[in-house]
Amino acid sequence: MRNGGNRQMGRLAAAVLCGSIALAAPAWAQDVAPKAKGIESEGYQWNKMEGEKVEALDLKGDPKRGEEAYEVCSACHLPSGAGRPDGTFPQLAGQHKSVLIKQIADIRAGRRDNPIMYPFAKTLTDPQELADVAAYLETLPIPPNNGKGPGGAHLKEGKELYDRDCVKCHGANGEGSEKDFYPVLAGQHYQYLLRQIREIAHGKRRNANPDMVKVVKGYTDEQLQAVTDYMSNISWPKRSAKPAK
């Protein structure tokens, strides 16, 4: 097993940070990420093609090796990649390889602030492992039982906003775009989506796409809730698992 020591520590950190009992994480699980320039910086360029991200994108990922490397991540994101319905950890199954590689690379570089994820992202020690994990996660079917919004009247307003402002990039089924690095939204948890869109709207997600910031920064919080409610209820049949009978 490559990097077996890092994996073992990663599993222990995951058990501590994601377990039901609140404990202080070991010192080696509390690494502080570097601070790369983000959207708050002059001259910020979204998705600049450089560094290990480009190297990983140019490599062919091996899902079998990726499954092994994903063991560190599965304590929080679950073996199925389903994440947590309460939105503490996102749904990763079926996500585009390009999006996964970009987000992990941004966390590792400190362009996306995620202090809980950072120590685990560091266990993927080379671009090939990034490519392998992303290839594995993309093969997993999107679970049908994600955490959904409250529904009701919100859904109509949310669909109107989505069709007006979001469908061009994220698609009618929430399928996103691997080529353009737009994430799959289908099957994602409502609470996670709401937290992220609020951070984007308020300029707190440092690796955000400026084009998306322009779209959502004028939304009221009620509109943010409505559109994410709708997002949490759409599905992409191509990659979605069939509900159990």
Structural commentary:
It is a single chain. The chain is mainly alpha-helical. The chain has two domains: 116 residues, Cytochrome Bc1 Complex, Chain D, domain 2 (Orthogonal Bundle); 79 residues, Orthogonal Bundle (Cytochrome Bc1 Complex, Chain D, domain 2), CATH 1.10.760. The protein contains twelve helices and no strands. Helix 2 packs across helix 7 and helix 8 packs across helix 12. The longest helix is centred in the N-terminal third of the chain and has 15 residues. The protein is globular, with a radius of gyration of 18 Å. The termini are far apart. 41% of the residues are buried. About 2% of the residues have low confidence.
> End-to-end distance, in Å?
38 Å
- What name does the CATH topology of the largest domain carry? Cytochrome Bc1 Complex, Chain D, domain 2
Which secondary-structure class do the elements indicate? mainly alpha
Number of helices: 12
Helix/strand order: HHHHHHHHHHHH
Q: Could you estimate the helical fraction of the residues in percent?
A: 40-55%
Mean pLDDT: 90
Low-confidence stretches: 20-24
Number of domain modules: 2
The CATH superfamily name of the largest domain is Cytochrome c-like domain
Strand residue content = under 5%
Q: Largest beta sheet, briefly?
A: none
Q: What top-tier CATH class of the largest domain fits best?
A: Mainly Alpha
Brief summary of the model shown:
The protein is an all-alpha fold.
Keywords:
Cytochrome Bc1 Complex, Chain D, domain 2, mainly alpha, globular, 245 residues
